[in-house]
UniProtKB/TrEMBL annotation:
UniProt organism field: Paracoccus isoporae
E.C. number(s) listed in UniProt: 1.1.1.262
InterPro entries found in the cross-reference section: PdxA, PdxA_fam
Protein name (record): 4-hydroxythreonine-4-phosphate dehydrogenase
Domain of life from the UniProt record: Bacteria
Chief localization: cytoplasm
GO molecular function: 4-hydroxythreonine-4-phosphate dehydrogenase activity; cobalt ion binding; magnesium ion binding; NAD binding; zinc ion binding
PANTHER family xref list: 4-HYDROXYTHREONINE-4-PHOSPHATE DEHYDROGENASE, D-THREONATE 4-PHOSPHATE DEHYDROGENASE
Amino acid sequence: MPRPIIVTCGEPAGIGPELAPALHRAAVPFVWMGDPRHLPDGTAWTEVTDLAQLPADGLAVLRHDFAAPARPGTPDPANAAGVIEVIARAVTLCRDGAASGICTMPIHKKALKDGAGFAFPGHTEFLAHLAGGADVAMMLASTTVDPPCRVVPATIHIALSDVPRTLTPDLLERTIRITRAAMIRDFGLPAPRLAVAGLNPHAGEGGAMGREEQDWISDLVARLRDEGLDISGPLPADTMFHAPARARWDAAICAYHDQALIPMKTLDFSGGVNVTLGLPFVRTSPDHGTAFDIAGTGQADPDSAIAALRMAGQLARARQAQ
Ligand SMILES: NC(=O)C1=CN([C@@H]2O[C@H](COP(=O)(O)OP(=O)(O)OC[C@H]3O[C@@H](n4cnc5c(N)ncnc54)[C@H](O)[C@@H]3O)[C@@H](O)[C@H]2O)C=CC1
Ligand SMILES: NCC(=O)COP(=O)(O)O
């Protein structure tokens, strides 16, 4: 049997735990790690201790006891440490070879900061840290639209006012190279076509609306193209995401979070998958967050989580075949 994917429980007060019973639809061997008290009432689950021996039926649970039960919509600071421990434990299982990847359910960053002093903006940076300081990038990938929309923000969880000084030539070049390597290694595209979004409206319109494109982004893209990369840009971001434009690239490297995530989530919110590129193990996640406003109401759509688990299985198989 292939090694399973670990599904981390995420924030117990969010929608993560209630998505677990639907995940079998991904048709990927997986184990859910968390506190069984946080699963929806009536969930059929079986505790596993050996990842090579999964039960034939019901939800396989790798137990991690938390300090407190969950109250949907209201995170308990006492549970913050457990959320973090589960992620770290999943990484250890991957690195030990017992699991083939991780699919994380959403965390609430502020709840973890307030409850346990979590010092990372999100999973992406925490996982990079656990991997010994890996150079990573965040990709959001659609799964149900054609042509696909795969976007990689070069800057991630920072204030918009900090973007221009944080987006350096070094950061953009590293993000482009991480993206290209992952498209080849993980997505099976030997010659990925990359597009780079401009920072400013109309990609600066020749300096009339901002200078970064003229001052350095164009030169960086030209240098990488001379090196042999199939790369275009800087492109005006407002006209690069409609279907005929997406048909010209396999992944778009964007300047900042919302420039990347708004088009992807608008096109495919229920099929969107968050993938961390550049890690030594596979990690995916649904594109949505903890959705406290609907947690515990039964309204949560499991499709993005199912797509994320399915993609984790695909990426893990691709790596195992290498
Ligand atoms: N991978 C992760 O751990 C992620 C964590 N987050 C975190 O989640 C928290 C809440 O973030 P928000 O910006 O409010 O985004 P959100 O995605 O949690 O919610 C935005 C809106 O979409 C709805 N929604 C989200 N997922 C849904 C689903 N599966 N089915 C039906 N409706 C759904 C919610 O009810 C809400 O109205 C924040 O702390 C954020 O940092 C956000 C994205 C990813
Ligand atoms: N907006 C995407 C997001 O918050 C996911 O962050 P991460 O937890 O995957 O780093």
